Amino acid sequence: MVRSTIIVRASDALPLAASVDDEQTEQTLQEHKQQAKLVFRRITPNSEPKCSIESGKYTLHYLLADNVVYLTIADQSYPRKLAFSYLEELSKEFSVSYGPKVESIRKPYAFVGFDTFMSKTARLYRDTRAAGAARGSNLDKLNDELQDVTRIMTKNMEELLWRGDSLDRMSHLSTSLRTESERYRKAARNINIQAMIRQYAPIGAVAFILIIILWWRFS
Which residue ranges does the record assign to the V-SNARE coiled-coil homology domain (predicted)? Predict the structure, then answer.
């Protein structure tokens, strides 16, 4: 399930809003919240817009949009589709409510009132098994209809924070992979076209000659 959420400004990691967590959640996620702060420091406008960072029993999912980072800490078993759908919901509402004010804010947690919407939305994205027992197949249906997230970058927290791997480098690698994939598709398409030309060109040439002969004979 979704455990905790924080929203920060990407350019300087200034906290804008956060979920109000109980004391037990604060203690349980203390280390992971520190890790989240380190992730915020590494994010730049060129970073991967969506990323899941695995850390022990939990996964940190973040969404970068319009110089705002939306990050939630969820159980590792929690579906990524639901996690990013949750973040998308927050992003849309936050952009409408506070988007124009984000750049001018100077004090932390200026939009603390957004917790009301976060809490309400988080309740819709509780553990799928518990929610399913209470509300039938609503979440299962939602899970099936959500966008495909198989291409979202996944990273291990140890690799990201302790081995010096940066989010910019992750973005660069992801872009390179997409570029190489596109080149491969174009090359494969050209090869297929050339194969078709080699296969059907002789037939076309014979047909053309026959047409010329018939036209010349009956004209």
Answer: 138-198
Evaluate if residue 133 carries a pLDDT over 60.
no
C-alpha 188: how far from its chain's center? 28
CATH architecture of the domain formed by 2-191:
2-Layer Sandwich (3.30)
Q: Which two tokens stand for residue 197?
A: 């030309």
pLDDT band at 143 (very low <50, low <70, confident <90, very high): low
What is the CA 29 to chain-centroid distance, rounded? 23
**HSE (side-chain half, CA atoms, 13 Å) at 153:** 25
Rounded to whole angstroms, the Cα distance separating 21 from 72 reads: 12
CB 25 within 8 A of CB 5: no
3-state secondary structure 163-206: CCCCHHHHHHHHHHHHHHHHHHHHHHHHHHHHHHHHHHHHHHHH
- Burial of residue 5 (number of CB atoms within 10 Å: 0-12, 13-18, 19+): buried
Domain-by-domain residue ranges, the chain?
Answer: 2-191
Query: Nearest to residue 82, comparing CAs of 116, 45, 131, 35?
Result: 131
Q: How far is residue 52's CA from residue 170's CA, in Å, rounded to a whole number?
A: 12
